[in-house]
């Protein structure tokens, strides 16, 4: 499982909106160091990841009203009560897998540490694969008393499976004219019901159809 992370600081300076992201080198006159680390490289579903973000004001002036944002992976969920600033519990705003917290003041040369935890979930671990298209159902021509076969129509070159009373299954292939026929294991009796499905190439089996010998 690959877990993404992205921490940033947004603030106003000289009437300009500035954004600094973790682990990036900035050439702005306003210098803030922001680095983000995690306590593990591999986790299982249900385990926690602890993130540590270090923020340092490298300016020669105090900074005010900094907006800290951290967007965490959609395969994780925030652990309530885990958000701490310099080891003091704080309550950030949570909006769609993003934490938002306002830092009122960061003094000259001051260092600040933010930690929080997320729990891995199985939200992104359900592999979904497109299901194959379902085959068209075949047709069964009305069977008659004492017949020793069952026949019908289908898609050329598809497979037909016919189930007789007692559970015996006989299969065949539809010919290029769209017809099929299987030999019955015994001569059909009045009231016998036979079932058939069709399986076209690269498709899932069709619904089951049936036909009953007249009483």
Q: Proportion of β residues?
A: over 45%
Spans with pLDDT under 50 lasting ≥5 residues? none
Helix content: under 10%
Q: Give a short account of the largest sheet.
A: 6 strands, antiparallel
The level 1 CATH classification of the largest domain is Mainly Beta
The mean pLDDT is: 87
The gross shape turns out to be: rod-shaped
CATH fold-level assignment of the largest domain: Immunoglobulin-like
Task: Tally the helices.
Answer: 0
> What gyration radius follows from the Cα positions, in whole Å?
34 Å
Number of strands: 18
Give the structural class: mainly beta
Question: What is the CATH architecture term of the largest domain?
Answer: Sandwich
Q: How many structural domains does the protein architecture include? A: 2
SSE order in H/E notation? EEEEEEEEEEEEEEEEEE
């Amino acid at each position: 499982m690959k877990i993404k992370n992205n921490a940033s600081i947004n603030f106003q300076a000289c009437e300009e909106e500035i954004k600094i992201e973790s682990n990036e080198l900035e050439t702005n006159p306003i210098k803030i160091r922001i680095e983000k680390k995690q306590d593990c490289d591999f986790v299982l579903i249900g385990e926690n990841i602890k993130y540590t973000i270090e923020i340092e004001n490298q300016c020669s002036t105090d900074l005010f009203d900094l907006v800290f944002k951290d967007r965490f992976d959609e395969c994780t969920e925030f652990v309530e009560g885990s958000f701490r600033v310099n080891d003091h519990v704080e309550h950030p705003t949570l909006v769609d897998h993003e934490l938002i917290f306002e830092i009122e003041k960061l003094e000259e040369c001051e260092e600040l540490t933010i930690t929080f935890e997320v729990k891995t979930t199985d939200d992104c671990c359900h592999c979904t694969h497109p299901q194959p298209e379902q085959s068209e159902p075949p047709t069964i021509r009305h069977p008659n008393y004492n017949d020793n076969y069952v026949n019908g129509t289908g898609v050329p070159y598809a497979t037909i499976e016919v189930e007789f009373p007692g559970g015996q299954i006989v299969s065949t292939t539809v010919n290029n004219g769209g017809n099929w026929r299987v030999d019955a294991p015994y001569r059909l009796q009045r009231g016998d019901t036979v079932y058939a499905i069709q399986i076209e190439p690269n498709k899932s089996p069709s619904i089951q159809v049936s036909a009953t010998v007249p009483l």
